[in-house]
Fold this sequence. Notes:
Helix Hairpins, 215 residues, 2 domains, flat
Amino acid sequence: MKAGKNHYQVLGIPVNANLSEIKKAYRKLALVFHPDKHPDPQIALPKFNEIKEAYQVLVDPTSRRAYDREFHFQKYQDKIQPLASEADEVLQLTKELWAKLKKQDPFRMDQDLLYFEISQLLNTHNIRLLNNRANPIMDREIIQYLMDIAMALSFEKKQDLAKVWELIARDQDESLDLISNYLKHAQIWSLWDKYKMPAAMGLAIIICLGIYLLR
């Protein structure tokens, strides 16, 4: 997968396109550029392969999430931090990120940048440092800070990060339970945020209907 290619642009769809829109765009372009249907197959083939690659990446939820992460991170390449030299430094970097974000307005926060910064802390090198140190108390403290930092992110991003938190927790039951409970609460809040407006409207209709019937 090459994050340098804009697969959304290739298919002519927005970055928040749903599965139906992705399939519809692919079918439309495939009819035009398929080598068996195009007047000049040699010209059509490279374009068709590009369309096919974009479709295969975006139609699969797992590969699409990985692509989105790489694609969005390109604009933050100048913000890549040097690797930590020891486990204690990973904890210190986590605390510094937490302190910096506490000063920001969560409603104006750049979620992509935040996700990128957390992912930087959770790179393979830093996780290896923590695993080699094997300090359950430190690991749990880092996970707790990261959970607090990630509060502003979407549930899907929290799910992705939780998989990495589990690599830090390893076989530590207390930390694994902490992650599991965090995701459960995050899912509840995500559902509430999604359906609170329809629920409020429904309740208002019921109240109005009740008042009308009691008149």
